Amino acid sequence: MRLTILGGGGFRVPLVYGALLGDRAEGRVTQVVLHDLDAGRLSAVARVLAEQAAGDPGAPEVTVTTDLDEALRGADFVFSAIRVGGLEGRAADERVALDQGVLGQETVGAGGIAYGLRTVPVAVDIARRVARLAPDAWVINFTNPAGLVTEAMSRHLGDRVIGICDSPVGLGRRIARVLGADPREAWIDYVGLNHLGWVRGLRVAGRDELPRLLADPGLLGSFEEGKLFGPEWIRSLGAVPNEYLHYYYFNRETVRAYQQADKTRGAFLRDQQARFYDEMKSPDAAALTAWDRTRAEREATYMAENRDAAGAGERDADDLSGGYEKVALALMRAIARDERTTLILNVRNRGTLSVLDSEAVIEVPCLVDANGAHPVTVDPLSGHAAGLVCAVKAVEREVLSAAESGSRTTAVKAFALHPLVDSVNVARALVEGYTAVHPGLAYLE
Ligand code: G6P
Ligand code: MN
Questions:
Q1: How far apart are CA 308 and CA 329, in angstroms?
Q2: Residue 221: which H helix or E strand, with range?
Q3: Residue 298 in contact with ligand 1 by CB distance below 6 A
Q4: Which of 97, 126, 187, 382 is buried deepest, with most CB atoms within 10 A?
Q5: Residues 37 and 119 in one domain
Q6: Cα distance from N-terminal residue to C-terminal residue, the chain
């Protein structure tokens, strides 16, 4: 089985490789092709992987290339984990928005729109090439904003592209844990868009345990989302929101906290990772140790400003190990070996949520097998959730249409329609600001 990783010089690639190393079963991935535009980053990451694989004769073979078509030919799975414009681009996405007094964040609000506008044309080009060069490959999309990018790619790849995110899994795992349930036994009733979903129930042996959590402020205040949103607000909603909804429900506080931070998240990661990749230029650097130190610091500081604004304190030690590589591996195993499982994934709606059309990519529990990911039937969204989901999907559609047509007017519309952008004039200023700093937006006319 051959896995091609686009963005193969990216910082989180060793997590994926580590998960592959733990997989010994028949039909596992035996070849990994790393593709990146930057040969220096590729060789840095390849060094980390070589140290991970040291002494393991069964470790998947790793090759690197900067030629995209070569990377795609012969792939069984393609992971797309690219970052168009790099972390410098992410920092600019944040800064331009914060300067206009609105949220500057990787995937939510104005920052997410800017990132989407830069990424969609590149993702579409990749999708077209996959359709031509590796038509039987499955594409697993990690590239953010993951729901929007998956929808863009699905227009060329249909159901062969599946988007993944670790945040719903993490949320489900935390809720199961505080309820004393085994996360593997629990059925998580979660639905929405990527980074915009809610847990409405958690069933163990047919019984919904969520009401027990909602009734207990002590339990509610004991895990990440409970601390971020506060027990009272979660009880009011009657559902536990994905952590990214903190940017909606506490928008003023998060914008202020982000404006006051020494560095935005993107700028912090840009500087942190620049040090790591620099260190890797020295031939005697201990690659795996340096990578792991950098990873630990990144995970400990995830959403630090949100936690500060909410008085939520440090992250729980159990939440520091991520999990996105586990979702990716579980998905590949289910498809490659027909190991049936249920995973929360980003797939086309196909009637699951009646408020959206069938082509809209949503985030929903899916049954996965050799035929791909099939969304399960879920209860309808509440009025509030349906409203937000529809509003944000409408914005995503404007982004897709601006990326296709190159229309600046449509880009303004995307920003202006977003619930977290409070004026059409702000939207105009955002388009001015973003096109001035991002060469990747030169196509907007
Ligand atoms: C979570 C999200 C991912 C995102 C990551 C960002 O895992 O689900 O979509 O890429 O956080 O974390 P960062 O360390 O880059 O701020
Ligand atoms: Mn995510």
A1: 33
A2: none
A3: yes
A4: 97
A5: yes
A6: 43
Q: Strand, helix or coil at 35?
A: strand
Query: Are 154 and 183 contained in the same domain?
Result: no
CB 414 within 8 A of CB 399: yes
Query: Which string of b and e fits 175-213 if b means at least 16 CB within 10 Å?
Result: bbbbbebeeeebbbbbbbbbbbbbbbbbeeeeeebbeeb
| 165 CA → ligand 1 middle, Å | 9
For residue 283, the enclosing domain spans: 251-310
Q: Which residue has the tokens 């984990």?
A: 81
406 located within any domain: no
Cα-flanking dihedrals φ and ψ of residue 166, to 5°? -95, -10
Each residue's pLDDT tens digit, 139-197: 999 999 999 999 999 999 999 999 999 999 999 999 999 999 999 999 999 999 999 99
Closest residue by Cα to atom 10, ligand 1, is: 144
SS3 of residue 367 by DSSP:
strand
Looking at the domain assignment, is residue 418 inside a domain?
no
Answer yes or no: pTM beyond 0.90: yes
Span from the CA of 358 to the centroid of ligand 1 (angstroms)? 27
